[in-house]
Amino acid sequence: MTVTIYHNPKCSTSRNVLEMIRDNGVEPEVVEYLKTPPGKEKIAEIVKATGEPVRGILRERGTPYAELGLDDPKWSDDELIGFMVEHPILMNRPIVVTDKGAALCRPKEKVLELL
Questions:
Q1: What's the CA gap between 84 and 38, in Å, rounded?
Q2: Among 26, 39, 34, which Cα is nearest to 9's?
Q3: Which of 23, 39, 73, 110 has the fewest CB atoms within 10 Å of its CB?
Q4: From CA 20, how far away is CA 17, in angstroms rounded?
């Protein structure tokens, strides 16, 4: 099984999900998206795979979400993805992609559905 985690090592939920994946005998591809941010097409692909709306993947706390006015409904999905490319911290985590699908793993137990 192929597993990719979009991971922020400073996030306890992300660390816990990574540990849960490894505890299930899988060594995932770990993408530290703050160091190597995915491009616009990849983020769009990830969002689509999760089945979540783009706004469901946006992180508000500890990000420039408020100062950029991203709660304004005027922003299109494409524009919001552009903001995530420009400010990767806006991408919520951890997102896990496997052969079974993709999900924002909050709560952390959500990863078990993908393994």
A1: 9
A2: 34
A3: 73
A4: 5
Q: Report the amino acid identity of residue 18.
A: L
Rg (CA), the chain: 14
Mind listing the pLDDT tens digit of every residue in the chain (115 residues)?
899 999 999 999 999 999 999 999 999 999 999 999 999 999 999 999 999 999 999 999 999 999 999 999 999 999 999 999 999 999 999 999 999 999 999 999 999 999 9
Q: Are 90 and 59 in contact (CB under 8 A)?
A: yes
CA distance 69 to 91: 16
Q: Does the annotation count 105 as an active-site position?
A: no
pTM over 0.90: yes
DSSP letter, residue 3: E
Q: Answer yes or no: CATH 1.10.340.30 is held by domain 3-114.
A: no
| CA nearest to 98, candidates 13, 9, 19, 6 | 6
Residue of 1, 6, 10, 11 with catalytic role: 11
